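Researcher: We are triaging several targets before committing to wet-lab work. For this one, the compound of interest is nicotinamide-adenine-dinucleotide. I'm pasting the protein sequence and the ligand SMILES. What I need is the predicted three-dimensional arrangement of the protein with the ligand bound, expressed as structure tokens, so it can go straight into our comparison scripts without reformatting.
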Amino acid sequence: MRTRAAVIRETGKPWEVTTLELDEPGPGEVLIKFVASGMCHSDEHMRAGHTEGRLPMVGGHEGAGVVEAVGDAVTRVTPGDHVVCSFIPACGACRYCSTGRQNLCDQGAQMVTGMLPDGSFRFHDDAGADLGGFCTLGTFSERAVVSQYSCIKILDHIPLDVAALIGCGVPTGWGTSVYAAEVSAGDTVVIFGAGGVGSNAIQGARYAGAKNVVVVDPVPFKREKAVEFGATHTFESAEGAHQAVNEMTWGQMAEHAICTVGVLTAEVVSAATDIVGKDGRVTITSVGRSGDTQIALAANGSVVGWQRRIQGHVFGMCNPLYDIPRLLRLYDDGQLKLDELITQRYSLDEINRGYDDLLNGKNIRGVIMHEA
Ligand SMILES: NC(=O)c1ccc[n+]([C@@H]2O[C@H](COP(=O)([O-])OP(=O)(O)OC[C@H]3O[C@@H](n4cnc5c(N)ncnc54)[C@H](O)[C@@H]3O)[C@@H](O)[C@H]2O)c1
Ligand SMILES: [Zn+2]
Ligand SMILES: [Zn+2]
């Protein structure tokens, strides 16, 4: 079968929209026709060469669509089902899945190669090269063959463009506040970076009962949207936020700082550490450039003396089999804003314009709408 897809062949080059050959689903695999795919910053990290992966690769890891066919031994979905693809698969049986930590599923090990559990690839180009899909998905392809472990069946009435965002950005951001940081009622939370992930960290912090949800983002449009998602205060810079947090907490400083900037740097981690008080927690969601050092702190007074904690995580410590339907239920009940996350929709051919818009601060989330 032929499918059109956006591919990274060489880092630092624009996305290449091309036509690939796609194999039939093998045992445990599912053929999905993607309807929509969110444009997360993590694909941009891979394209720019900030993070390392096996190339060439089909991009996209935040998608929703319809099951067209299933291979042998598939039990989770059947043809016609609407599905969200979880950017980390959940096998349900490994050490981590079986202890309520599906975000750490052993099947996630091939995220940056895109190799399926049987050790092979389903995308091939006309020169004979095998391609993996980012996060073993490749949602920037009109169709993909993925493991059933990546598939979460959803109800048919949920719009597939908003459902796509539940594959990564929404649970990652929400879970950053609710699970990874463990924000509590009355807390002061400072969120650095209010993009696709940070906007959902804002929603999670508010839902968890934070008193002050303070957002730092240099882009005015992001700060305006942050208020819509539940921010109580917004600042252009860390310095402005630091002074205000000092005042609003009577000098105690924040319980939480959350890093959801596009590219993690040592400056952001330092500012985040400085803004939390004694026993405060810094929760890091963002990734930076491979080879750079992003955590460079004078530990004595700053971390040891003040008993601060620095916590990294993937996927907001969510359990996709549980949290994806749960978040969609909140949306359906009007308690989680998802429509408001989508700033612009693009065709697959417009992918480079979409990522330029992301880098220029124009989008909370851009979404590719597949046409085929
Ligand atoms: N840990 C995970 O599981 C996980 C999952 C998804 C995304 N991510 C990472 O999270 C990060 C955010 O992703 P996204 O899709 O929301 O990106 P995004 O580009 O949509 O948002 C980043 C935001 O940070 C703001 N920003 C940039 N520099 C800043 C600074 N110095 N201070 C404050 N704000 C700043 C930008 O204006 C933008 O609003 C990326 O690094 C991405 O790779 C991690
Ligand atoms: Zn993502
Ligand atoms: Zn598992």
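Researcher: Any quick observations?
Model: The chain has two domains: 2-167+338-369, 173-314.
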